[in-house]
Amino acid sequence: MKTKEINNNTVIDKIDVHVHIGKYAGSFVNSNYEPKILDYFKKNGYKKIVFTHNSFFFNLEEGLKNTLEFILANSNFAYGYLVYNPHFIERSLNIIRDNFGKNNIVGIKMHPEDHRCFIDDEKYRPLWKIASEKKIPVLSHTWNPNVASSFQKFADAVLFEKVIMEFPGLKIILGYAGAKDYYYIEVVKMLKKLKKYHLYIDTAGDILYRGMLEKFVESAGAERILFGSDVPWMDPAFTISYIESSGFSLPVKTRIFSGNAADLFAI
C-alpha cells in the first residue's frame, strides 16, 4: 500500500477492518453519524473500510439490505461483513451463499456475546464449514470472559484453539485482540501455539496498553495484526496514534495499517 508525505509527516494508507455503520437501539449510536465519520476517514488516510451494519443484529434480511445500500453509496471505499446468527442457521447460511464474493461482501462477522452462544458451541459448526470451504475471513467479537459483564463469557477467544484444530483452514480475526486486562496473557499463549494457522487480531477498541502491540507482533508476527478502530464506539484517533507511536519501522506499520487487510480480504 502507498504512503505519502504531508507536512513532513508520513501518512500511511489505512484499511479499517472493524467499523460499525447504522443506528444501534439502546445506545448512544442513535444519530446520523455516517457523513461525519466518512469525512474523518478521508482526511486521515483511510482508503477502505470493512464494516458491519448494526441492523444485522436485529434482522438478517434488513441487515443485508442496509449493508448493500451503504456499499452502493460508497462503492470504492466500503466493503461489508455478513452476520452469522447461530440461532437462525439456515437463514444465515443462505445469505452467505447468495452474497459472499459479490458487491464488495468480503467477510463474516460473528458476535458470541450478543447472540449468547459460546464460540465452541455446535451451532457455529455450519459457519466453520462454509467459511473453510469458501475461504471466508471471519471477524469475531472476543473479550476477557471474567469481566463484570457475564455475557462476555461467550466470547472467550481461547475457545478458538479447539475450533482451529478441527478446522485448520479457517481465517479468524480476534476482535479487540481477543481480550482485555490480564487475559491478554492467555491470548498471547494461544497465538504462539497456533502461529502457523490463520489467526489474526485487530486493534479495535480501548483495549491495548502500552507495549501490548509489540507482544502481539512477537507472538503472532506482524503479518497477523490488522488495524481496526470500533467506530463509532471508539474514536479511531486512539488506535491510529497507538500504532503510529509504536517503535516499529514504517514497513511494519504499513502492513498493520493496510497491507495485511488488503491481502486477507483481497481488496
What does this structure look like?
Strand 8, helix 7 and strand 9 form a beta-alpha-beta unit. This protein is an alpha/beta fold and 267 residues long. It has a single domain, classed as Alpha-Beta Barrel (TIM Barrel). The strands form 2 sheets. It has an 8-stranded parallel beta sheet, sandwiched between helices. It has a two-stranded antiparallel sheet with strand order 1-2. It is globular, with a radius of gyration of 17 Å. Helix 7 runs parallel beside helix 8. It has 10 helices and 10 strands.
Task: Determine Rg (CA atoms, Å).
Answer: 17 Å
How large a portion of the residues is in β-strands, by DSSP E? 15-25%
Alpha plus pi helix count:
10
Q: Return the CATH architecture.
A: Alpha-Beta Barrel
What is the residue-averaged pLDDT?
Answer: 93
* Anisotropy-based shape: globular
Q: Assign a percent range to the helix content.
A: 25-40%
Number of strands: 10
Which stretches of 5+ consecutive residues score pLDDT under 50? 1-8
Strand order of the largest sheet: 3-4-5-6-7-8-9-10
Helix and strand run? EEEHEHEHEHHEHEHEHEHH
Count up the domains: 1
Counting helices, strands and paired strands, the structural category is alpha/beta
Largest sheet: 8 strands, parallel
| CATH domain fold name | TIM Barrel
By CATH, the superfamily comes out as Metal-dependent hydrolases
Highest CATH level, the class:
Alpha Beta
Report how far the terminal alpha carbons are from each other. 11 Å
